[in-house]
Design a protein that fits this description.
This is Plastocyanin/azurin family copper-binding protein. The protein has 177 residues and is of the alpha/beta class. It is built from three helices and eight strands; from the N terminus they run αββββββββαα. The protein folds into two domains: 1-32, no CATH class; 33-175, Cupredoxins -  blue copper proteins (Immunoglobulin-like). The strands form two sheets. A four-stranded mixed beta sheet has the order 2-1-4-6, with no helix packed on it. A four-stranded mixed beta sheet has the order 3-8-7-5. The structure holds copper (II) ion.
């Protein structure tokens, strides 16, 4: 006979499974946006973007989702128009930033120009919460090689970006679906 405790656990577990089943297809098959989670430890000692390095095809949408229950976060492009940072997105690409996202909230951005987009979290700049999105490949006609592509360190901020080649290497996962 099922114990009361086990029954309770199941009744919580099943809705979670149903939610996952509904959510998953949008993640892996190119039907929905590429996801970057904003995460943190329960007491907020550590915060990060996951994955820190993401490859997407030109014109794809990236969705930043705050999956951290105890912190607000932003996704903010490195650009002089946004808090005077160095430019670390392709020349001519418009700067972008989310609002402060509460737990569970999300922000979508469409990235049309091939190249490397480095971004950070405004409230956690001092904690090294940074990430990198690579759009397209160096074979694209509009791709330009900019000096910051080879650098994994920011000017005046802790945190390290993933290597460009490492992010490019993940794109086969998308091709295979
Ligand atoms: Cu943050």
């Amino acid at each position: 006979m099922m114990s009361r405790r086990r029954f309770l656990a199941c009744s919580l577990f099943l809705p979670a499974l149903a939610w996952l089943a509904a959510w998953r297809p949008a993640r892996g098959h190119g039907a929905g946006p590429a996801l970057v989670a904003m995460r943190g430890t329960a007491r907020g000692e550590r915060v990060w973007f996951e994955p820190a390095g993401l490859w997407i095809p030109q014109g794809a949408t990236v969705r930043f989702v705050n999956e951290d229950a105890v912190n607000v976060h932003t996704a903010t492009a490195f650009h002089p128009d946004l808090h005077g940072r160095e430019r670390r997105i392709p020349a001519g690409a418009p700067p972008w930033t989310s609002e402060l996202l509460l737990p569970g909230e999300h922000y979508d951005v469409v990235l049309d120009q091939p190249g490397v987009y480095d971004y950070y979290c405004l409230p956690h700049a001092a904690h090294g919460m940074v990430g990198r999105i690579v759009v397209g490949t160096p074979e694209d006609a509009q791709w330009t090689h900019e000096s910051y592509y080879q650098s994994t360190r920011t000017n005046g901020m802790p945190g390290t970006f993933p290597e460009l080649n490492g992010v490019l290497a993940t794109r086969s996962r998308h091709a295979s679906g």
